[in-house]
Amino acid sequence: MSVSESDFNTFRQFLEVKSGILLGDNKQYLVTSRLKRLLEEHNIKSLTELMTRIQSQPRSALQDQVIDAMTTNETLWFRDIFPFEVMKNKVLPELLKKQPMQSLRVWSAACSSGQETYSLSMTVDEYERANLGIKANVQIVGTDLSPSMLKACKEGVYDSLAIARGLSQERLQRYFDKLPEGRYAIKSEVKARTDFRALNLLDSYAGLGKFDVVFCRNVLIYFSAEVKKDILTRIHATLKPGGYLFLGASEALNTLPELYTMVQCSPGIIYQAK
């Protein structure tokens, strides 16, 4: 499928309005590769035809499928390692000491197929194992705008290819049950800490409640500077005073000094809500 400049511009404007994702110039190849199978399934011959169908049925399943295809990304278990070590060795001990009788709430934003959310639950378990007698009452809320990703999160079943992306053999044996055909299911005790919900980061966060920690990693890079600032401001409103924000390794919070304080963790940087 060839994509003209005008069709591409129309499509990326639609994608930004609906999901906040800003496609850069000359990304026609990305649109072609991600939508190829979907267009074949619906017998759609061009991007022009696709946009005509979507505009005639703005609340259709087709629109959801297009956004799903364009926003779903590969993800890893314990991505970048250091955030989970910081969580286990600094953030959890500090927050549990500050509020020992209260439950902690963690938000895993744009959680894709659930690897980050479940990695956080495993991190909590590892903290408890290393500190016998301490029970960390933690709820981890994973959100994503993709219906297919949320379905995968809730099922918690992964094939051997997904399992191989960042998961050690020790963690595989401890936290998964082996299923037929090379698949693995998250154990129920890991699942029990998690709650998956549909949320577009452009929409209101009011229904989520307050959090002690927010992981919003490797997603802000897809947004414009204006949208990014808006999201970070609204994330701050969900954080309890002194709560922590984790961003991706390639992301930095160079604005909003009135809302966040940078915390050097060696390695890595996190941000504390003022």
What does this 3D model show about the protein?
- With 274 residues, this protein is α/β, with parallel strands linked by helices.
- The protein contains 11 helices and 10 strands.
- The protein has helices at 5-19, 28-41, 47-56, 61-71, 82-98, 115-130, 147-155, 160-163, 169-175, 188-191, 225-238; strands spanning 104-108, 138-144, 157-159, 176-179, 183-186, 194-198, 211-215, 239-246, 260-264, 269-273.
- Helix 6 links the parallel strand 1 (104-108) and strand 2 (138-144).
- The longest helix is centred in the first third of the chain and has 17 residues, at 82-98.
- The chain is globular.
- The model has no long low-confidence stretch (mean pLDDT 92).
Key attributes of the depicted protein:
11 helices, 274 residues, 7-stranded mixed sheet, alpha/beta, 3-stranded antiparallel sheet, globular
